[in-house]
Amino acid sequence: MTVVGNHTREPDLRAALAAVEEGLVEATRSDVPFISEAARHLARPGGRRLRPLLVLLAARFGDPDAPGVVPAAVVVELTHLATRYHDDVRHEARPTVAVLTGDFLFARASRLLAGLGPRAVRLQADAFKRLVSGQILETTGPRDGHDPVAHHLRTLAARTGALTAVSGRLGAVTSGATEEIADTLAVYGERLGVARHLAAELRTPVPGAPTLPVLLSGDPTAPALTEARHEVLRQCAAAHAALTPLPTGPARTALAALCDAVAEAT
Hints:
The protein has 12 helices and 2 strands; from the N terminus they run ββαααααααααααα. By secondary structure, the protein is mostly helical. It has a two-stranded antiparallel ribbon with strand order 1-2. β1 and β2 form a beta hairpin. It is globular, with a radius of gyration of 18 Å.
């Protein structure tokens, strides 16, 4: 199983990713053409699809052909896309449209999720609660006297890491993998999600948004960038170490390669 970017060359995994794309097309279809076009704007192929890939790789530790695996991958991507719409509200000329489009995607994700059973619903609900808590923490900022860097990392663990963590957990759960494997993949997913977000902050910082280099020094100086890169590498190392209990094989190798790809791009 050779990882290329965020995808693999293994034929059956490519087929599963193609099935996820088909699921996204179906989930973003609406009787109202404007809603369909708005929803598909972010859902169209070409994205990295990290979260569905995590679901599919996690399912390799159980039965990857179990009927709930692909729907779970569609659910986590729909949730990710919906949160992106909500995040973009402040930049949107018609914020109500962005909010309602995000709500439409949440509704479609919820409908698919209901078919996966009560446990999957609870797991996704818990992840979404953490995600929203992270967004609130980001908006409110650290309390007086609290370390802004620690606050930022805590925010990312919830805002970004929650959805990558539940991607690994849902992949394990829907495939029938053990609880120990599900826990391991959740830890791995959270650390990988934080590492990727921090790496993105280094590459393409959003003006006005808190980023690790700025929080470390007040401005993106060279020493701060170096320290921020070290934090990315620490998060990658933590994700890599989390994989230790997993059985060796192509899926574990692919998950490790995702860590290496983030580290190498930093």
